[in-house]
Amino acid sequence: MLDWIKNIGKDYPEFWKYYLVQLEVPSTRKVALHLETTGINPTKDKIISIGAVAIENNQILVESSLEIELNKDEILESKEVTYQEVQAIESLINFMGNATLIGHRIHYDIEILNEYLSKLQSGRLKSNLLDVEVMHDRIMDTASKKYSLEELLSFYNIKNPEVATSGNSAYMIAVLFLKMRNKLGL
Amino acid sequence: MKNSIAESVANFLKDFKPFSFLSFEDLKSISKFVKVIHLDKNQKLFQINDELHNSFYVVNSGVIHLTVFSDAEETLLNKCYAGDVFGLRPFFAKNNYQMTARANEEAILFAIPIEKVKPFVGQNAEVLNFLLESFANNSNNPADKDRNKLLSDSVQLSEFQNDFSFIQSLTYNKKPLLVEHDQTIREVAVLMTDNLLDSVFVKEQNKLVGIVTDSDFRLKVATGKQAIQSHIDKIMTFPVITVTENISLAEAQLAMLSHKVHHLCVTIDGTPHTDVKGVITQNDLIQAQANSPGVLIKETKKALSASDLKAVYHSLSGIIQQAVTKSIPLQHLYNVSGEVTLAIIRRAIEISILELGSPPVPFAFLSIGSQGRKEQLLLTDHDNILVYQDVDIQQVRDVKDYFNQLSKKTTEVLEKVGYKHCEFGHYANNQKWCKSLTEWVKQYENWINTPGEFTNEHCSIFFDYEFVFGDQNLETAITETIFKTKSKVLFLDYLGNDALKKPAPLSFFKKFNEEESGPNVGKFNVKEKAINQLVDIARLLSIQHGLKGINNTYSRYKELAIKDTNNAEIYLEAADTFLLLSRYRTLEGLKNDNSGEFIDIEKLSKVDKEKLKESLHILKDLEEIVKDTFQLTQFS
């Protein structure tokens, strides 16, 4: 809320400055995002792996995707933010740029990312967000009913890939988005 | 960096041609550049005259229809299912797209950039050949495409080869006349006249040197150029065009056209140096082109015994076998085979009558069930009934006796030809199905007014009948009975209930409901679980809509689509599904020489499986229509 007061005069890291600059230009690019975490408590839990894939002109670009797996043991042991985590967050922010983020219950992801970012002396994420669960809620005209990712996938007839990785999950979220997009007239 | 998305894509592609030719590593590096596209139902990917995209497409899920416009009508060229490749035009040509690609149902496509694939195509001859072949494949022949699982982009609309001419081998005169070169013209002319032939081959020291035909006599003898005492080699035409023994109709035609001759000499190896085996005349070609089913019917009419009929039946199944694999439209085949079968049955009755003497009163012989619907391609059972005119009470016994014998004889003949008895005993041999008109009318009224009383009976097939032989008025009388009966509600409800009682083709998990026990364990019974229901529902709805004279499932659905415009789409799809299923069944039946009821799902290709599954969904829609139209609760 009063973030901006805290941030006055603060010297952001390079990647964050670049992020803020990019945000000033609106974009049609979208990024489907999936984080694997140890839990949903942003203060305590950690990110284990990151999967993201870009959608441009309503096409999923496999070429433009990001997939990072972190060393779980190392993260859980260390009290501080490890170097590999810093790198992962930096490359994710760089990858996102000014794109709209799409995810399943994306506010959890954003919370946990914000937590990381504050440890890296950066501000909070300001990207536009889309949540496939909320989108489905709109389509079905149900009042904030809960839909798990699996339910959504089976509802839209999307086959689970054989290997469950964050990358594949991000891809499936992207496919979900494409299928929902026209129904909502986005 | 790890890229599990690309890996998943590669995993999908590796099962399909031409990607199966590539190593998984190569596939992965291609997959990295794949773009994933989603199309809503009826959304177009590209249309005719669009500029070429820089990628080609693989269907990941859903169905894409490739269409062209001809005569302001959209003609479906092909359907692409999961794994099919299309949009290859940019590979080879620079001009714009020649067809429209449209999603028939929501689809996910992989767009593969041409640039990224080209290096692999260059390195891998198999891939190149595959792509070239499929691109160059201009034919409209769906079977070819099925085999390749790849669809041509450069399509020229041509009429289907609806006849069998190109697969047929020729029948020709295998005993041609041979004369020595020093025989006189007169001798030869006498010989030809005696043998009723219009051509003769001339030998010199056992070597074929020339041919003399009627026109040679006209041109060279009748004009006075040669005396009739001259040697025959003065007027012969040479060289003789020779062909091999097993020449096809099309080849023979070509040979005649390109050499501008009317006679071809058949030799053992196709050169003039080997023995002469026969002569093919233009007449042979015409006869062959008059379409072999026609010839078959002719032969049927001449047949004197069951074994003659059996020979006809064998050539019929030969024709069907070739035709099915050559993808001649199944509906056309059904008609042809229906006509020939009809002729066989007719002849069988005639043979029986010849033996028993002429019938005492007019009668009608009707085919019921699949032959009644003209949907018989394979050696399946044959059901028939016999109706004879009412007679005075005194004559009843004699008449009944005669017709019992007649039908018994006929079924015997048919059995010798190869038709099995219907497992329910629905053939006129059974006394129950050999009755007078009044009895039949009563029987039908019974079925209609008090349905359910004959629950063990398969009475619905009695509503698909076709007139075979005898007095057509009797058939008309029965048809009128059916359509005249007013309170059919109960009966229709009963039929509806019956139609829905059929076992479902797909299980809850969208798996095929395979046989769980018996000799065909693990196979899918396509007749029981899919075709029967399609047939039943078609019959039910056409009785409901009062469609007279259409007994064919395919035409019934087509007709229903016109009558009931609300559900037109479903009916049209059902018609196609019926043909598709029948095709699978026929192929299976021909492969195993049985009725083809059991399809071995494991042996189907992945694409065929998908296609089959896809098409079975229509049954659900049909069931809904039935449920909406009739009150089914009365009987369940």
From TrEMBL, chain A:
Task: Give the superkingdom in one word.
Answer: Bacteria
Enumerate the SMART domains for this protein: EXOIII
A GO biological process held by the record: DNA metabolic process
Entry GO MF terms: exonuclease activity; nucleic acid binding
Record-linked InterPro entries: Gfd2/YDR514C-like_C, Ribonucl_H, RNaseH-like_sf, RNaseH_sf
Gene3D superfamilies recorded = Ribonuclease H-like superfamily/Ribonuclease H (3.30.420.10)
Domain Exonuclease stretches: 29-186
**What name goes with this protein?**
DNA polymerase III subunit epsilon
UniProtKB/TrEMBL annotation, chain B:
User: Record keywords: Cell membrane included?
Assistant: no
Q: Which UniProt keywords apply?
A: CBS domain
- Transmembrane in keyword set: no
Q: Which residues form the CBS domain?
A: 172-228, 236-299
The signal peptide stretch is none
A molecular function annotated in GO for this UniProt entry is: [protein-PII] uridylyltransferase activity
Gene3D superfamilies, sorted: CBS-domain, Jelly Rolls
What residues does the Cyclic nucleotide-binding domain cover?
A: 54-138
**SMART domains, from UniProt?**
CBS, cNMP
Quote the protein name from its UniProt record.
Answer: CBS domain-containing protein
Give the lineage: Bacteria, Pseudomonadati, Bacteroidota, Flavobacteriia, Flavobacteriales
